[in-house]
Design brief:
225 residues, 33% helix, 8-stranded parallel sheet, D-ribulose-phosphate 3-epimerase activity, 8 helices, TIM Barrel, single chain, alpha/beta
Length: 225
Amino acid sequence: MSEQLTAKIGPSILNSDLSSLYEESQKLLDNGADYLHLDVMDGHFVPNITFGHPVVKCLRNKIKNAFFETHMMVSKPEQWINSMADAGVDQYTFHVEPVDCVPDICRKVKEAGMKVGVALKPGTPVDVVVDYIDMADMVLIMTVEPGFGGQKFMDSMMEKVSWLRNNYPSLDIEVDGGVGINNIDVCAKAGANMIVSGTAVTGSSEPAKVIATLKNSVNYCLAKH
C-alpha cells in the first residue's frame, strides 16, 4: 500500500516576512514546495496570535492552485471550519486536545469540502487516533510544542511516527517542528512523508536545494518500504 505515498514538503510561512505574504509564499512554491502550511494561532490554545481566514482568503485570491493546509492551533476548531472552507483551504488540520468529540469535527470538515488532518501535541499519546483514524486523511505529529517557531526538534516523537506507519501503512503522516536537513533522515526512516519545515527553508540562501534534499530523503525511504 505504501507505494501510493509520496513525499510532500510544505514549508511553514510563519517564519517568512509576513508583510510580503504573497511574494514569500509564491517564492516557496517556485522553489519546489508541494503545499503551504499555514499556522493559525488564536492566543488561547497557544500563547501567540498569527492570522485568520481573511488573510488566507486574500492569499488564495493571489495563488489559485496551490494546496493550502491550515494548522489550526485554536481552542475551538469547530468555529472556523466554514470560514476556512470559504477562504479556499484544502486541508483543515486541528488539534485533538481541546476537542470533546473529534469525529464530529472530522465530519464537519469533510462536509465543508476539505481534507481532515488531526494533530497531536508532544504529550498526547499516539493511540488516541484509533477512534477516528478512519475519518482522517492525515495525522500530524508535533515534534515541538505548538505555538513558537525555532524550537529544538524532539527525537522521541519518532516513536509515534513509527507506530502510525506500522499500523496504517497508507496514511499520510506529517511532522512539524524543528525539522531540517540535520534530522530529515530520522523523520523519513520513521515513516513521515509530509514534512513541514520553517526556518530551515525560509532562512536558507538556497531554499530550493533544502526542499529538494528533504524530498529526496523521504522518497528514498518510501522506496525501500
